Amino acid sequence: MRKGISKILAIVLGVVLLASAGPSISSEAASTKKLDKKVLYMHSASESYVNLGVDGIKKLSGLSSNSNNIRPTSYYYNDYANYNVSGTKLEETSNGARIGINLLCKKQGDAKIKFKCAGKNYVLPVTVKKYVNALNSITITNVNSGKNIKSKFNKQAKLLNEKSLVLAKNGTVKVSAKANSGWKIKYICIKNNKSDSNTGYRHSISMDYYNGVQNASVKLPGYIAAHGGNVEITLENQTDKGEINISCDLVKKAVKK
Which of 163 and 19 is assigned the larger pLDDT? Predict the structure, then answer.
């Protein structure tokens, strides 16, 4: 009889303990929000920095990753300042209002980016894929005699001071681009490093395409070759929605009139 009573008491006690533990477990799960997975593309075959944008987050702390191959190095948000992982301000920046996380990607793979905002823990799964050239063609007025320079981007997305990309003539500059099959252009821009005397911003023109387009072009009148400039193009993969940001410097040289 005593054994029967002991068993009943043990069962009752176990139920009570389980019930008391329940709210704690649920509370912990409720305080962590899992965000939708994002796909990113590397900017070259070797390690590269990739930007991860997160909408709806005003400020964060405790930024970390569960992967040594894909780890955050800094972030910025709507006070226009750049911070390192520990929250120390690095420099002023002109980036937009949403949170931007700079990731150092040593190789492709998966990672979980974790951070905290307003007392809530967030987990953002990311998949980093190898670099691909998403351009079918790109031409720039007076650069390489106006011929297609897409092969310049076969190994990397960003070309800095590439000697063959000299733009040495003043006037209107047109950039035309076509995306490869399975990709669409979301943004295209050309900038001249000459600052506008009224706004202080660089002389530029850009186009945004919410749904993406196969072909895009922009014209910038009044380009001054002696100041140099650059071209930027964002392409989106239509299957996984991952983006690649293409950019190249327009090298300044002695002006031909």
Answer: 163
